Amino acid sequence: MRVAMIGCGGMARGHARRMLELRDTNQIVVVCEPVPEMYDAFAKVFSDAGAPVPPNEPDLAKLLKDYADQLDVAFIITPHAYHFEQAKACLEAGLDTLLEKPMVITADEARRLIETRDRTGKLLVIAFNGSLSAQVRSTAKLLRAGEFGEIMTITASVWEGWQNDKIGHWKKDPVISGGGFMFDTGAHMMNTVSDLAGEDFVQVAAWLENRGDTVDLDGVVIGKLKSGALVTLTACGSTIKSIGSDVKIFCSKGIIRTGVWGEILEYQRFGEKNLTPVTLAATPGVWQQFLAVRNGEIDNPSPPEIGLRMAKLWDAIQLSAKQNGAVVRLDS
After folding, report:
1. Burial (Cβ within 10 Å: 0-12, 13-18, ≥19) of residue 264
2. pLDDT digits over 216-244, tens only?
3. Do 262 and 130 touch, CB atoms closer than 8 A?
4. Residue-by-residue DSSP string for 241-253
5. Which of 80, 77, 67, 69 is nearest to 97 (CA)?
6. Integer Cα distance of 103 and 82 in angstroms
7. Taking all residues of the chain, what is their mean pLDDT, rounded to a whole number?
8. 39: pLDDT strictly greater than 90
9. Cα gap 181→158, rounded to integer Å
C-alpha cells in the first residue's frame, strides 16, 4: 500500500506513528506539507522509529503528477476548508482516499465530493471515530432493524476546555476552520447523531455563542427528524480543562447510551430497571479499518453519505443561529 500523507500536523503525526507499526503492509511514499516546521516534526517521527523519512512536495498538484505511478492511497489530514479541493484532486488522480473529519464545510461541497467519488469509482472513507466504532456501528444496525422500536428523542452533549487550548490555532480562524467548537469537537456529535438517527433533519433551530471570541464556543440545537423524532444537541467549548460526551437515544422499546466517539455503550431494554454496559471487541484503528474496507473485508462504516447528512445539519445550524434561533426547514 503506497500512501501519500496530505498534511503533517499533530493529528497526522499521531496517525503516522500507528501506521509505522504496520509498515510491512504500507509505505508512506511522499507527504504534502507547506510549513517547513511541520514537516520537520513529521520527519522526526520517522527518524525516531528508524524508518526512512518520506520526501515533502508542498504543491499537491505537482505531487499528484510527479508520483502518479507510485501511489495507491491518499490520507488527508489538513485544515477543514481545504478538504473538498484536496479530496477531489486525490480521487480524480485515481487514489482511494481516507479523509479526516469533518468531511467538508458545506452540503454543496459534500454533494460535489460524492459526485466525484461516484464518477471516479474510487473509495472515500471519512475518519470519524464514532462511525468507525463498534459501539456506534452495532447500535445503528440494531436501530435500523427495529430492535429498540421507534426512536422518540435523542439528546447529546459534548464539552471541552477548547477556548483556551486553541489560542493562536488555525481552528480559531473561521475562514479555514469553517466554524468553532461546534464544528470541531462538536462535529463528532453531529456526525454520530446523524449516523445513529439514520435519517435527515427536517427542522432545526440553533443558537451559537462566541462570547467575544473569533468563532463559536458554545451552542444549543433543537431539531426534528423526518420521522418526527426530536433531537437536542449541546456543545460547550468554554468550560474548564476537560473533554467528554454523552448521547442518549430514547426509543419505544428501550434506551441507549453511548458517546460521540463511541467510547461507551449501555442498553436498557423494555422490562429492565437499569442501563447495562455492553462489551464489544476493541475497535481497530482508523487506518486498519480503511485497509479492511479497501480489501473488501468490511463495508464502508463511514461513507460520505453520512458526511452529507451532517453537512446539511451544519448549514441549517449556521443559518438559524444567524437569525437568532429562527426555525430553518431543510429540503429532503
Report:
1. middle
2. 999 999 999 999 999 999 999 999 999 99
3. yes
4. S-EEEEEEEEETT
5. 77
6. 10
7. 97
8. yes
9. 10
Residue written as cell 486553541? Answer: 166
| CA gap 214, 61 in Å, rounded | 32
For residue 67 the three cell numbers come to 508520483
Query: pLDDT tens across 58-95, in order?
Result: 999 999 999 999 999 999 999 999 999 999 999 999 99
Q: Are 60 and 89 in contact (CB under 8 A)?
A: yes
| Percent of the chain whose pLDDT exceeds 90 | 96
Question: Which residue type, as a one-letter code, is found at position 46?
Answer: F
Cα 132-225-264 angle, rounded to 5 deg = 35
pLDDT of 332: 61
Cα distance between residue 92 and residue 120, in whole Å = 6
CATH class of domain segment(s) 130-281+303-329? alpha beta
Give dist(CA 125, CA 108) in Å, integer. 18
Domain extents in the chain: 2-128, 130-281+303-329
Bridge partners, residue 244, by sequence: 159
Q: Which residue has the cell 490555532?
A: 169
Is residue 261 helix, strand or coil? coil
Residue 260 grid coordinates: 460521540
Residue range 2-128 in CATH 3.40.50.720: yes
Residue 25 has pLDDT above 80, yes or no: no
